[in-house]
Amino acid sequence: MIKLAVIGTNWITGQFVDAALKTGEYELCAVYSRSKEKAAEFAEKYGSVELFDDLTQFAKSDAFDAVYIASPNSLHAPQAMQMMKAGKHVVCEKPMAANETLAKQMYQVAEESGVVLFEAFMSPHAPNFKLLKSNLGSIGKIRKAFITYCQYSSRYPKYLAGENPNTFNPDFANGSIMDIGYYCLGSAVELFGEPVSVKAEAQLLDSGVDGSGSVILGYQGFDVVLQHSKTSDSYLPSEIQGENGALLMEMISTAKKLTKISRGGVGVDLSVKQDSNPMYYEAKAFAEQLKTNKLDEECKTRSLIVAKLLTEIRRQTGVVFPMDV
């Protein structure tokens, strides 16, 4: 049984803990929050759990051997490296780091410390996403792809009212491409690998981060258009176009539904039933790596490519974070 701890007490932390416990591979043993009261409130439904509000003492604790990090993006790298240097395995929410340099440092620390580092990017581990990837060859030579995730942020009204939520704050390494845009970019890299070119445009907010944007990834013989936004909604599916047909995916982040349309034909639903908690599959994948104490090299490669592309996309669109300096 994996002794799990968490950093952060927001809704996504609760979703991951529930998913982890559902796999039968984990037990929640410790919770860190800047406020011990918040840690206690989060841990209440999970039974006897050690509570921490001091990160140094938390890292030294032998109550757990793996930690899930869901703090603001800017804290991912320093907290993960602190935990790994203390001998803890780390599953870190996407994006793993604010920039490519920090992501590389994280994997170097993981190797030096002999621990597993895993980016919590749920899409590739979902059964329907795996079906999407395995069916790419069935639609002939790929000629176009469109991957979209646009969702009006619940925190955007607060930003418009003059508040400064983390979601739109460069100090926390945030913005559209670093948040839901990651699902588009990460999915493209998982499906097609590293592109040969990248062109990015974005609509910047006064805070300095992107509220929305578009990216064109160039590959040999085709390109992939990414559409992302935290200031508007979209109801379009993502689509992979081949010479013999197309594959449509509803909700790329969770791989909700996969449809195949042969050229000149009608749509066929290829979807399989998935667990109600979309983080179930990434929690299982992390557990499998801990059993062998060996990180997944393919996941590492994808994470580093995405970190590289995120850094380049921000360079092109003019989004700068304090930790870039």
Automatic annotation (TrEMBL):
GO MF term (any one): nucleotide binding
Domain Gfo/Idh/MocA-like oxidoreductase N-terminal: 2-120
Domain of life: Bacteria
Domain GFO/IDH/MocA-like oxidoreductase: 137-247
Pfam family, one: GFO_IDH_MocA
Alphabetized Gene3D superfamilies for the sequence: Dihydrodipicolinate Reductase, domain 2, NAD(P)-binding Rossmann-like Domain
Entry protein name: Oxidoreductase
InterPro entries: Gfo/Idh/MocA-like_OxRdtase_N, GFO_IDH_MocA-like_dom, NAD(P)-bd_dom_sf
Protein species of origin: Vibrio hepatarius
